[in-house]
Amino acid sequence: MSKITVDNTSITVMKFNESDFISLTDIARRKSSEPNVVIGNWIRNRNTIEYLGVWETLYNPKFKPLEFEGFKKEAGLNAFTLSPLKWVTSTNASGIVVKSGRYGGTYAHRDIAFKFASWISVKFELYLYKEFQRLKEEEQKQLGWSAKRELARLNYRIHTDAVKQNLIPPELDRQKASIVYANEADVLNVAMFGMTALEWREANPDKKGNIRDYAGVNELICLSNLESLNAVFIGDGMPQGERLLKLNRVAISQMNVLAEVTERRIFLPEAPEKKK
Fold this sequence. Notes:
Elements: E1 2-6, E2 9-16, E3 19-23, H1 24-28, H2 35-43, H3 46-59, H4 65-74, H5 84-91, E4 96-99, E5 105-109, H6 110-120, H7 122-166, H8 174-193, H9 197-203, H10 217-235, H11 240-263
Antiparallel strand pairs: 1-2, 2-3, 3-5, 4-5
Helix pairs in contact: 3-4, 6-7, 7-10, 8-11, 10-11
């Protein structure tokens, strides 16, 4: 669930079946303190019913067209009433969701929500669209950063699994296993940074953390790739000294490429700034 503020109106955005649905109830509050009445007046409108019917026909194979035709024929009559819940239950519509409990209300697929917003106010619809696009852009930035972190995590898992399967005999205890891990981590450190973790700590006694905490984005990308390659080399039974030389050559080559890419100003998504 997310919240966006549109022209001083707080509007909820939720996911239903992997699609973005926007609160019609919140939008309706822009017009009246009785949002259900506003939504009811909108949904009983003939133009609205026709739009909803076409939308459901395009995107919902389980939509009931006969029930839709019945509502369309009645639309415009003085006695005709229609609620979102009745529309959904009668036609098996998927573009509108009526939710009870916390964050309850009437939600609609963004296509339908924008249509409803334009019925409220064309100006408000444009503001809503702008804020919704901003929300999606922020989510994409977050997704890009999360994907990069997940890639590094998976590469580390591949690397440590390869060490377990190929370098650690089954009889090794945890202490001896940790020494093997440290040696393999230092293979990558030397290939990438030209020094072991201990050598870095001795050269930087005033710094907290480890050598990788002070690496740049390009170095982290390259290091992530080296972890995957080292896992393959380990699986092939390649001696540690030979792996180190190969990894070092790969590191030099990739860092040169990444440096050229950086000069062209093509970057991976940066980490989102923390809200103060």
